[in-house]
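Problem 12. The chain below contains 72 residues. Write out its predicted structure in token notation.
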Amino acid sequence: MSIDSDTIDFHVVINDEQQYSIWPAYRPVPAGWNTVGVTAPRAQCLAYIEAHWTDMRPASLRAQMDAAASSH
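Solution.
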């Protein structure tokens, strides 16, 4: 079974840096990633990510940039 198959379900997953990805539902989610509660075909998962991941910067970089901006 190919992980890019359109016939299997995927989980939408997120890591501590608030970066999104998809993971095949039939495989255990890797360490450091958590599901966000969406399990669906690939296209639906990607649409969810597109709608919700609006800032591609890692969370640590956003925090660092926000701190630098507020100190000026």
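Discussion. Residues 18 and 64 are 14 Å apart (CA to CA). Students who got a different answer should revisit the alignment rule from Section 12.3.
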